Amino acid sequence: MFRNLLSRLLESTSPTPLNGQDAEVAIAALMVRLAKADDRYGQAEKTRIDQVLARRRGLDHAAAAERRAAAEMIEAEAPDTVRFTRTIKDRVELADRHDIIAALWEVAYADGKRSADEESLVRLVAGLLGINDRDSALARQRALETMGHSGS
User: Fold this and answer.
1) Cβ contacts of 24 within 8 Å, gap of 6 or more
2) Residue 9: inside a domain, yes or no?
3) Cα separation of 143 and 102, whole Å?
4) Nearest to 48 by CA among 106, 100, 102
5) The domain containing residue 137 runs over which residues?
6) Segment 104-139, tens digit of pLDDT
7) For residue 64, what are the contacts with CB-CB under 8 A and spacing of at least 6?
8) Angle, nearest 10°, between helix axes 20-35 and 61-77?
9) Radius of gyration of the chain from its Cα atoms, rounded to whole angstroms
10) What is the DSSP letter of 24?
């Protein structure tokens, strides 16, 4: 179902907005890339990605896990983070990009550890998605509250 997503995503002629499922897999691929930024991609991060996907689109656990698995394949073949993120920015509405940053913060803290690599990547992606530092910080706070943590 998502086999041609990467080619659709990277088409250079007049990019069109991504449909719901394609957008979710592309966003999930960003979450996977973030989770791998500290060279540890564990079950806690996979579970958090599944939870975020389920919450965003009302998916059951199996559908969310299937979408994450597709995202893992897309992420492995996606271009560098800058190009990949800019492509998503051109295809996803601003309001949804704010939600993406909150989701990325959730994934960054899913394993209960702060990672400078993951935090740096969220900040980079936020800028590339057109989200300013203040809004990214607010999204970080929302993510921590969602996860039941206090800000650190």
Assistant:
1) 53, 56, 57, 67
2) no
3) 5
4) 106
5) 20-146
6) 999 999 988 888 999 999 999 999 999 999 999 999
7) 49, 50, 51, 53, 54
8) 70
9) 14
10) H
Cβ atoms of 23 and 16 within 8 Å: the answer is: no
User: Total structural domains in the chain?
Assistant: 1
Structure tokens at 25: 């897999």
CATH number where 67 lies: 1.10.3680.10
CA atoms of 32 and 104, how far apart (whole Å): 9
Q: Name the one residue in this structure whose structure tokens are 């993510």.
A: 143
- Give domain status of residue 82, yes or no: yes
Residue 152 forms part of a structural domain: no
Looking at residue 147, what DSSP letter applies? T
Model pLDDT for residues 29-56, shown as the tens digit of each residue: 999 999 999 898 999 999 999 999 999 8
- Amino acid occupying residue 97: R
- Asked if the structure places residue 15 within a domain, the reply is no
